Amino acid sequence: MARHSDLYRLIEPVPDLRSESGQGPVLVHALEGFSDAGQAIQGVTEHLKGSLDSQLIVEFDADQLVDYRSRRPQVRYSFDHFAGYSEPTIQMHAVKDADGTPFLLLSGLEPDLKWDGFTESVIDLAGSFGARMSIGLGAIPLGVPHTRPTQSSAHASDVDLIRGFTAWPGEFSVPGNVSALLELRMAEHGIPSAGFTVHVPQYLSQTAYPAAVLNLVGNIAQISQLELPSGELESAAADFTAQVTAQIADSPEIRTAVELMEKQYDEFMESRHGSDSLNPGGTPLPSGDEIGAEFERFLAEQTGDDGPGAQ
């Protein structure tokens, strides 16, 4: 089927992926690795596969695509023997939204190797399944407060795809990643492509951040017209925000830092012009590392409380 079919295997039988109107499916690519602050990408894939009907249809050969030395898989040890191995996966699922409309979900680890072969395989698969559009997901840590609405930056091969969304202003270079490459190559092969990069508070980027998951799922639903459940995510995001806010209230140092961040964030949102940063001029924001270190110290002082995001 694809020029690089040695990188994957199809899981038969592959279901009919056309909608009732005959439209091909949307492809959502959500690869974890380079850009997954707040575990947002992982959260989206777990939510979609866990709350909707999904079927595994493509299994990529992670052994050819992942550098285990850079991201070592976990091996579980139990008393006197090794008891399990968390094998890396890169998969494509056929998922049905709440109305029964099928779409494709590419998830798992971002490949370290064979980027060209991988992206060509995904594009060929998308073409063979009649994909009408691709949507990529990213999550980056930024100097934004958790007490403000979660924002994301939109990007697309055609600006008309993201009318009503907010694009990141200016021109700059960023480290390459497979999600961005897929978005670029999809457009070159005639498949409309878009993507969303959600902004995660830097001081919370190392823990699961439900508000970022909610934002990305909402963006997918809006641009694709898919019916995606979000009630559980809304509750989780509200509970997490309340928990963090309560903990911060007991730490004057963190509270002051967040209040300063809120002030500068609000000033930026009011101006919204002539800037390519969420840190406008004026007093510099405390760094995410500084706030994060203080936050960790505060949580360590709490007895019987593992902090937000604990499992």
From TrEMBL:
Annotated stretches, region: Disordered: 270-290
Domain of life: Bacteria
GO CC field: proteasome complex
Protein name: Proteasome protein
InterPro entries: Proteasome_assmbl_chaperone_2, PSMG2_sf, Rv2714-like
The entry's keywords: Proteasome
Pfam families the UniProt entry points to: PAC2
